[in-house]
Write a structure and sequence with these properties.
about 100 residues, mainly alpha, 4 helices, flat
């Protein structure tokens, strides 16, 4: 259950970052609400996951999901570059997260 909460926390982290992008482009209060609610859900789920999982592992996986998800969202939703080097480094982050899961 903790791993599911952690994955959901990472997903909400990505949604919150999308909200930040919307707020930074001055798109109105819906993005502000999206950002606030997403980060609240993300931190709550991360906190729940840390009751069972080691702090370092939980935080590393959470930030990995947030980093990868935000980069992919930026590429597909906001027209950011889709270079092979970005994909390579995203793959390295994912491999690291899987490695931490295997160890715990």
């Amino acid at each position: 259950m903790a791993w599911l909460a952690l994955i959901l926390a990472g997903g909400f982290e990505v949604t919150g970052v999308i909200g930040i992008k919307g707020v930074s482009q001055r798109k109105g209060w819906p993005y502000l609400a999206l950002m606030a609610l997403s980060f609240a859900a993300s931190f709550s789920l991360l906190s729940f996951a840390m009751t069972t999982l080691p702090m370092g592992t939980a935080y590393a996986v959470w930030t990995g999901i947030g980093t990868v998800g935000s980069t992919v969202a930026g590429m597909f939703l906001f027209g950011e570059p889709k270079e092979w080097r970005r994909v390579l480094f995203i793959s390295m982050i994912l491999c690291s997260a899987v490695g931490l899961k295997v160890l715990t």
